Amino acid sequence: MKNANVATGASLNHPIDSQRNYHIIRNRVALLDLSSEGRLRVAGANAVKVLDRIFSMDLEIVPRWHGVSGLFLREDASIIAIATVFKGDDDECYVFTEAASAATLRDHLRSHLSTDGVQLVDLSASFSCLSVIGPSAQSAVSRTCGDDILGMRYLSFEFNPTLGVQVFRMGFCGEYEYRLLCPVEAAEDLAQRLLEDGRTLEIDRAEPAVLPQLMMEMRSICLHDIPAAANPIDLGMHWMLSFRKRGYPGAEVLQALKGKPGSRALMLRFEKTGIACAGDRLEIDGTDVGFCSSVVFSPTLGQDIGLACVDPVYGWVGVPFSVDGPRGVVGAVGVSAPLFVTKTVSSV
Amino acid sequence: MAEVTLSEARDIAARRKELSDRVKRMLIDRLSLQLEVDEISDDSPLFGSGLGLDSVDALEVAISVETEFGVSITDEDLHAFRSINTVLDFIEEHAGESK
User: Fold this and answer.
1) Poorest-confidence range of A8-17, A171-180, B42-51?
2) Size of interface A-B (CB pairs under 8 A)
3) Structure confidence at residue A13 as a pLDDT band (50, 70, 90)
4) pLDDT per position as a tens digit, A286-318
5) Residue A188 and residue A170: Cα distance in Å, rounded?
């Protein structure tokens, strides 16, 4: 079945417009407005301790001006939000999460951070979030923010006195990424300055809608990639859990699950593009062994890739599957993540 | 499309699991990680977030893999060591090569 709007080399899972955004991020440097994503500030006496009680990673050991990615979980270990928490000075934390979980996380934190002296501020109305992503992002941002940012470690942040903004080094696409929190009224001027300063690096605006595709290539999961009630053990998100820390919601359930997961999340590469989609069943020799949770096109690989939830006996790299769905049947194989070495990584 | 029986698929998975457990036990032992085998997922990033290894640890990983599995690792090969699974891929591809 042909789609007249899909140009040669594209896929039903990846319209041609997205390829431009993708190319900018993977090969040069892009400026994105991430103001739709969640950003919260938690501050006050014991703010870190109170937040730490409901977070899956150990915030107490995170150095100041650094961050950690982890999870906010329900008691049954299902995921409320995937978040990155940065610890600043004087009992202050910044919490970032994707747009889909922003409101839920805010409400969750509000209900748990009602301790006297702990303030929760939703920054989305007052602060914009601009992101500079790509193998040339470090060079681009240093032109505007100064050479200090060259020394920033991944998952760290600092206040830039020149611009009066907080600069966070973070990101989940395998490329350099810097997020700048600035007052809403100053955002467009800052964006223009970043575009002007990065002109010789061919910086260009890109749309945030392309990010889940780049993230999937690195197996950085978004909420829409996973079944609603899935737990982090089945999803293979162990690096976002502190197994030595107890008491946070879901902790005891995770201890029980870790040795015997109900399923294994596995990255797949599909033999043909435009056929597999989320919800398709996985089979081996006519036996149902799982389903596709998320499918995207990878322009770098020229193939559809995806995340599947598989019977733990078979959910391993190298196992071939038959994927059966409304668009037909296609072969797939379990593969390792990240799916390739990005230009940022190879340049280090 | 490569078609296998359930039994063949089970064998492929079992071999991979055995290698995975062996590599994880090696890393836990050589790097003194405060983790158990079932607390490390196969796509766990080795560096940065994830296992949090640094460049010194990377060298230890390379030496350990070379010693344990009889493979040669160049500086360029190290770039491909991004997760447990990518280390396993390298071992499966090069195991048995002499130095």
Assistant:
1) A8-17
2) 98
3) low
4) 999 999 999 999 999 999 999 999 999 999 999
5) 22
**Is residue A3 scored above 90 in pLDDT?**
no
Inter-chain touch B10–A68, beta carbons under 8 Å: no
Please enumerate residues of A whose Cβ is less than 8 A from a Cβ of B. 68-69, 154-155, 219, 236-239, 241, 243-244, 258-259, 267, 271, 284-285, 287, 313-320, 322, 330-331, 333, 336-338, 341, 345-346
CB contact under 8 A, B48 and A331: no
Where does the pLDDT of residue B76 fall: very low under 50, low under 70, confident under 90, or very high at 90 and above? confident
A61–chain B nearest CA distance, Å: 13
* DSSP-assigned letter for residue B76: H
Using a CB-CB distance cutoff of 8 angstroms, which residues of chain B are in contact with residue A345? 79, 82
Span A167-174, average pLDDT: 96
Kindly determine whether residue A285 and residue B43, on different chains, have CB atoms separated by under 8 Å. no
What is d(CA A204, CA A208) in angstroms, rounded to the nearest whole number? 13
Contact criterion met (CB < 8 Å) for A258 and B39: yes
Partner residue facing B82 (CB), from A154, A318, A338: A338
What pTM, to 2 d.p., does this model score? 0.93
Q: Considering just the CA atoms, what is the radius of gyration of chain A in Å? A: 21
R_g (Cα) of chain B, nearest Å: 14
Q: What is the ipTM of this complex?
A: 0.94
Longest dimension (CA), chain A: 63
